[in-house]
Amino acid sequence: MTIENVSENRSHGGTQGVYKHASAETGTDMTFSVFVPPQAQDRACPVLWYLSGLTCTHANVTEKGEYRAACAQAGIIFVAPDTSPRGAGVADDDAYDMGQGAGFYVDATQEPWTPHFRMRSYVERELPALIAEHFPVDMDRQGITGHSMGGHGALTIGLRNPATFRSISAFAPIVSPLNCPWGEKALSGYLGDDRAAWREYDACALIEDGARADALLVDQGTGDQFLEEQLKPQLLADACKDANIPLTLNLRSGYDHSYYFISSFMADHVAWHARRLKA
After folding, report:
1. 202 is annotated as an active-site residue
2. pLDDT tens across 167-187, in order?
3. Domain 4-276 CATH superfamily
């Protein structure tokens, strides 16, 4: 598989790159960013995946996430995919919470989304194979994190693939799409009306159905405008308590849903993953 080099910049002794490739899963060109720390000159490094939220691309965290210093210190490769397929001929919606920019990390089963909206398979299979081919990664040491819709993606992908991901965290995640307007709209649109089919895309439902993790880390701002209606972290806390999954839920006083919040605690998450990704 080939990739196109869009840009590369020196940063914190490593390289911040943006790349593009033709995706077989989505049938579109897909853009992603990768930070390679200086330690990768001498050895393969663990990888931390970051999944972005609604309306975002790879660029939001790349430009505003403030992860590079922490990743350079810990020797972690940081990969940020796009949130959805894009381009002419790709289905879209006038609203911000459906269509391009809002892939919800599912494999769609409903028209008009089915041909291109295969973000689950893209993130779980196609992009990791591409990263393993082109970058000095230790694929036995992978962690995953994300924000909002991407937090939902990180939790569900991590919980569905415990043999792949040693560590799972999230910033202000949608913990239960079955129980919030964003999730109900997206999952019904992409997957149809059978709510049983939604459960593999709901972190709380996955835990109720037997998925397990050694530990989870979630940071949530108390000033987040989406906290009560869309995010509902207490549902995840309850599910983890019932399943005896250690959950660290940090409620950050006054922080909102923005990258001012994410960047404030990104280094903490990188360090948390680094401890779990040691050889």
Report:
1. no
2. 999 999 999 999 999 999 999
3. Alpha/Beta hydrolase fold, catalytic domain (3.40.50.1820)
